[in-house]
Write a structure and sequence with these properties.
- By secondary structure, the chain is mainly α.
- The protein has one domain.
- Helix content is 76%, strand content 4%.
- The protein has ten helices and two strands; from the N terminus they run ααααααβααααβ.
- The protein has a two-stranded antiparallel ribbon.
- Helix 1 packs antiparallel against helix 5 and helix 5 packs antiparallel against helix 9.
- The N terminus is likely disordered.
Length: 236
C-alpha cells in the first residue's frame, strides 16, 4: 500500500514538473521571457494591459519561485517601475509568498518516503524541538539573497516544520528584498541589471558568514545532533 501511494505521489510530482516545463517553454517560444528580461519593455506591456497586469505580475512571481529559469528579479523590478514602492512591493510579496507555499506543499505531498527510495537515506528530524530552529533558520535564510529562495522552499517541505510557521517566516523574510527590488524598479528602471545582482550577492555573502559561523559552532558542540540525524532506509 505504501509503495503504491508513493508511486502515485511520484507520478503526480513528475506531472507537475512536466506542466511547469511546458508553461516555461511556451513563454520562451512566444518571446515572453525576452520581454520580461527587458524591464523597460515589460513595464510598458504591464501598463498596456491595465488591471490584468497585477494578476500577471503575481502569477509570474509565483511561477518564478516554482520554476527557477524564469527571472523573478526582472518581474519584481517591473512591478516596482509600474506600481511604485508600496503596491509594487505588495504584489511582489504576494507572488513570492504564494510560490513558496506551493513549493513547500508540493514536496510535502511527495513525502520523505520517495526521497528515501531515491537516495537510500532518510533525514530524521525531531518533531517538536526542531520547530523553532527550523523557523528561525528559514527566517534568516530569507534575509540572505545568496541562499536560493526556491530551493529552501522546496527543502522545507521535507521537514516537519508546520505550514503556519513556514508561511509566517517566509512572509516576514521576503519583505526587505521585495521592497528593495520595487525601490530599484521605481527609481532606476534602466539600471544595469548585472551590477544590481552583483551588489545583492555581495551583501548576501556578508550576511551569510556569521550564519555559517553559528552553524559550525552548533555542529562542533553537538547541538544539532539532538535535532537531526541521517539513517539508511529500511526496505521491506
Amino acid at each position: 500500500m505504501l509503495k503504491t501511494l508513493c508511486s502515485h505521489r511520484f507520478i503526480c510530482f513528475l506531472s507537475l514538473i512536466f506542466l511547469f516545463s511546458l508553461v516555461y517553454l511556451t513563454l520562451r517560444n512566444t518571446g515572453f521571457i525576452d520581454l520580461i528580461s527587458d524591464t523597460s519593455r515589460f513595464k510598458n506591456y504591464l501598463l498596456s494591459i491595465g488591471p490584468w497586469g497585477i494578476g500577471l505580475t503575481i502569477f509570474l512571481m509565483a511561477f518564478a519561485i516554482l520554476f527557477k529559469l524564469l527571472p523573478s528579479a526582472a518581474v519584481a523590478l517591473a512591478s516596482g517601475a509600474v506600481y511604485g514602492h508600496t503596491w509594487g512591493t505588495i504584489y511582489i510579496i504576494i507572488g513570492a509568498w504564494l510560490g513558496a507555499i506551493i513549493a513547500f506543499l508540493l514536496t510535502r505531498m511527495l513525502g520523505a518516503d520517495i526521497i528515501c527510495r531515491l537516495s537510500g537515506h532518510r533525514i530524521n528530524i525531531e518533531q517538536e524541538k526542531s520547530q523553532s530552529w527550523l523557523m528561525w533558520g528559514l527566517l534568516v535564510s530569507r534575509f540572505i539573497p545568496v541562499i536560493p529562495y526556491d530551493i529552501v522552499s522546496y527543502a522545507m517541505g521535507l521537514t516537519p516544520l508546520k505550514l503556519w510557521r513556514f508561511s509566517l517566516a517566509t512572509l516576514i523574510g521576503i519583505i526587505p528584498t521585495s521592497f528593495f527590488l520595487a525601490h530599484v524598479g521605481k527609481n532606476m528602471a534602466e539600471t544595469n541589471f548585472t551590477e544590481m545582482l552583483s551588489g545583492m550577492m555581495t551583501a548576501g555573502l556578508v550576511l551569510l558568514l556569521p550564519f555559517l559561523i553559528i552553524l559550525y559552532f552548533l555542529y562542533r558542540t553537538n547541538k544539532l545532533n539532538d535535532l537531526f540525524s541521517v539513517t539508511r532506509c529500511k526496505h521491506n
